[in-house]
Amino acid sequence: MKKISLSLVILFFTISNLSAQKKEICIIKTSLGDITVELYPKKAPITVANFLKYVDACLYDNTTFFRSVTLNNQPNNSVKIEVIQGGEVDSTKVFAAIPLERTSKTGVLHKNGTISMARDNPDSATCSFFICINDQPSLDFAGKRNKDGQGFAAFGKVIKGMDVVKKIQLLAPNDNQYFKPPIVILSIIRK
Question: What is the three-state SS of 60-74?
């Protein structure tokens, strides 16, 4: 009887541990191919919940990747970055802005393939997100890209489809950060 009880206890803790480590996976379906992202709800719970609220409401369907920041198209910025940005939702359907989960607290840094929320001021992120191309430490807390030094809320990473991310980036004009026409996001779904 003790062996059965001990086995049940071990099984319970194993299942509990596996579910506690569960990561959310989403597929960003674009007109140029799919991008699979792994989200970190334990590290960035507010940001992941916000992103998934838009996903579950299908509000990212038929939006776009509308911007690509490359080393060549930001002549007035002393701190250069490389990202593609998308997910602008109809302004009448945007949810309330969320508090900024700083990288100094989450530990999720802006490395190659990181997905993060776009923002103007701290605590102003809503729906727009970006994906890093190459490591972008200037987007982390205390980074130099924004004068406020608060960084952006990184909340996951690309686990498949960086070739699609780079394909999108290559379509950016050298004299402008905005695609004409933008790259369609057909949908974002949970896997």
Answer: CCCEEEEEEECCCCC
Fill in the amino acid letter for 14. T
Average pLDDT over residues 17-44: 87
The structure's pTM equals: 0.88
Which one-letter amino acid corresponds to residue 1?
M
Backbone angles phi, psi at 95, to 5 degrees: -80, 170
With a cut of 70, say whether residue 98 has pLDDT above it: yes
Burial of 31 (0-12, 13-18, 19+ CB in 10 A): middle
Tens of pLDDT, residues 169-178: 999 887 889 9
Task: Classify the C-alpha dihedral 120-124-126-130 as positive or negative.
Answer: positive
3-state secondary structure of 45: helix
Measure the CA–CA gap between 64 and 28, rounded to whole angstroms: 11
Cα–Cα dist 112/75, whole Å: 22
